[in-house]
Amino acid sequence: MKHYRIVVGLDLTEYSDIVLEHALDQAARHDRPELHVVFVRERAHKKRAPEELHQHLAAVVYPALQTWNRAGTWRARLHVRTGKVDHEISALAQDLLADLVVVGQFGLHTPRHAAATTSARVLAGAPCPTLVVGMPRAHQASPICGACAAARDDSFGETWFCTDHVARA
């Protein structure tokens, strides 16, 4: 029986836990999951040694893996590569004949177009289905005010605007 191989690209930001959780959720849906978690060293990380990055990656991955893999039957391997994020993730997925790639919206602390471009390039280059994990709603900038959102929730969609915005119309 074949292992279900998942390549998980993490950028070691505070959102890595969310991306990893989605990957582990996908792994839990299969009998023999094999996770390959990769961090790609770009220019900004060249000062940090690969061993240091590997330890940081292990500190993020192994506690979550122990929580999800209670039976102890999952396989997991950590990878630290150097190069362009999209190329390295796609190349690893190709080399492993991966069944799924899971990535986040890389560079959430960089300009919006850079994050979108990296995710789009990973999607375009991946040799298998790809799950791009977006930022949690709590961290997204909302185009509506909080009071309007609360009015919608409280009224089950009957009222769309708060009293301040209804008064302006």
Compose a concise summary of this entry.
This protein is α/β, with parallel strands linked by helices and 169 residues long. The chain has six helices and five strands. The N and C termini lie far apart (63 Å).
Question: What report would you give on this structure?
Answer:
It is a single chain. The protein is α/β, with parallel strands linked by helices. It has 2 domains: 4-135, Rossmann fold, CATH 3.40.50; 138-169, no CATH class. Helices cover 43% and strands 19% of the residues. The protein is built from 6 helices and 5 strands. The chain has a 5-stranded parallel β-sheet with strand order 3-2-1-4-5, sandwiched between helices. α4 (112-125) links the parallel β4 and β5 (130-133). The radius of gyration is 19 Å and the shape is elongated. The mean pLDDT is 85.
Annotation keywords:
Rossmann fold, five-stranded parallel beta sheet, alpha/beta, 2 domains, 169 residues, 43% helix
CATH class annotation of the largest domain = Alpha Beta
Specify the biggest β-sheet.
5 strands, parallel
How is the CATH topology of the largest domain named? Rossmann fold
The helix-strand sequence is EHEHEHEHEHH
Total beta-strand segments:
5
The CATH superfamily of the largest domain turns out to be HUPs
Report the CATH architecture of the largest domain: 3-Layer(aba) Sandwich
Shape: elongated
Distance between the termini: 63 Å
Strand content: 15-25%
Q: List segments where confidence is low: pLDDT < 50 over at least 5 consecutive residues.
A: none
Proportion of helical residues: 40-55%
Using only C-alpha atoms, the radius of gyration works out to 19 Å
Q: Reading side by side through the largest sheet, how are the strands ordered? A: 3-2-1-4-5
Number of helices: 6
Category from helices, strands and their pairing = alpha/beta
Mean of pLDDT: 85
